[in-house]
Amino acid sequence: MEKFAILARVEAKPGKENDVLEFLKSALPLAEGEPGTVRWYALQIGPSTFGIFDTFETTDARESHLNGEIAKALMANASELLAKEPVLEMVDLLAVK
Fold first, then answer.
1. Where is the signal peptide (predicted)?
2. What residues have CB less than 8 Å from 68, skipping those under 6 apart?
């Protein structure tokens, strides 16, 4: 059962909203290839605000994801796509259905 999660918020630079949206959609196969990532959600919160919410059974799996391909790709493109640094919150899940 998932006990741990990451809630990440990213803010697109003006004019880069569609690029961030497409980047997040394109990351799905990378998330599917991570055995420790139980669930992975990419979401749009507002016109230029996006998020990623992922769940894990162990803190080791969460840490592995933080050092994985999605994070590397996002940070490699951050200066071009993002208005500011991503906000990452480590979350302990209290109940899961």
1. none
2. 30, 34
In contact, 88 and 8? CB cutoff 8 Å: yes
Cα(1)–Cα(8) distance, integer angstroms: 21
- pLDDT band at 46; cut points 50, 70, 90: very high
pLDDT of residue 37: 97
Half-sphere exposure in the Cβ direction for 90 (13 Å, CA): 8
Q: CA-to-CA distance for 43 and 51, rounded, in angstroms?
A: 5
pLDDT in tens, 47-88: 999 999 999 999 999 999 999 999 999 999 999 999 999 999
Q: Which of 36, 30, 32 is nearest to 5 (CA)?
A: 36
Q: In the Cβ-directed half-sphere of 35, how many Cα atoms lie within 13 Å?
A: 0
